[in-house]
Design goal:
heterodimer, A: about 110 residues, mainly beta, 6-stranded mixed β-sheet, globular, B: 4-stranded antiparallel β-sheet, about 0% helix
């Protein structure tokens, strides 16, 4: 079956760095997405990786290793507004998104 | 960036009534639209995928007669929850893409449905 695993919850300190991991097993692979979702709101797009390596976008970076079925989202210089759930999603062979359960990130002052 | 709107943003209804939720792509033509449901503290659950002018493809376990989806144009899809019951109370989110292949899904703001 298809499976996306990511930690349920993480806690970090304002100003610090946090890495949220995602491992996946899917039938086919057409890219991996990271979305941010604040409570009560819809997800918003953060990043897309289809090739191995690191994609940097401001304070957020996303890494992919297709051979390991592994990705991480790196958040630097954490701000209180970064408190949210972070969803990992993989596009499978049918271009359908398979969603992880999300990682709730709690930022403490 | 691409904008997707949803209407209404929240709705409260009595058990047994039907509720229609609209999803519109405002500045692009959405080849494919997706309907998700999200219960508290759970991840997104895909309900169905719809392409303009054709019948929606429902995920396993989703009743097509209860959740009616119409994708009448490239900018509008509707989800009708028929004979809603309290267990249908959830956060319903639509998303849209410009192509059927891999691409970013643009999400609407969601509709919170409460069935009394």
């Amino acid at each position: 079956g298809q499976n996306i695993d990511q930690p349920t919850e993480m806690t970090a300190t304002e100003g610090a760095i946090v890495q949220i991991n995602c491992t996946y097993q899917t039938s086919g692979f057409n890219g991996l997405f990271w979305y941010q979702q604040h409570a009560g709101e819809a997800p918003t797009f953060l990043s897309y990786n289809v090739l191995d390596g690191l994609e940097e976008k401001g304070r957020f970076s996303s890494f992919l290793s297709r051979s390991k079925g592994y990705s991480y989202l790196l958040l630097k210089e954490l701000q209180m507004k970064d408190s949210a759930s972070y969803l990992c999603a993989v596009s499978d062979s049918n271009y359908q998104l398979i969603w992880g359960a999300g990682t709730k990130l709690i930022i403490k002052p | 960036g691409a904008v997707v709107s949803q209407h209404p943003s929240w709705v409260i209804c009595k058990s047994g009534t039907s509720v229609k939720i609209e999803c519109r792509s405002l500045d692009f033509q959405a080849t494919t639209m997706f309907w998700y449901r999200q219960f508290p503290k759970q991840s997104l659950m895909l309900m169905a995928t719809s392409n303009e002018g054709s019948k929606a493809t429902y995920e396993q376990g989703v009743e097509k007669d209860k959740f009616l989806i119409n994708h009448a144009s490239l900018t509008l899809s509707t989800l009708t929850v028929t004979s809603a019951h309290p267990e249908d109370s959830s956060f319903y989110i639509c998303s849209a893409t410009e192509a059927s292949e891999v691409g970013e899904q643009f999400f609407g703001p969601g509709t919170r449905l409460t069935v009394l």
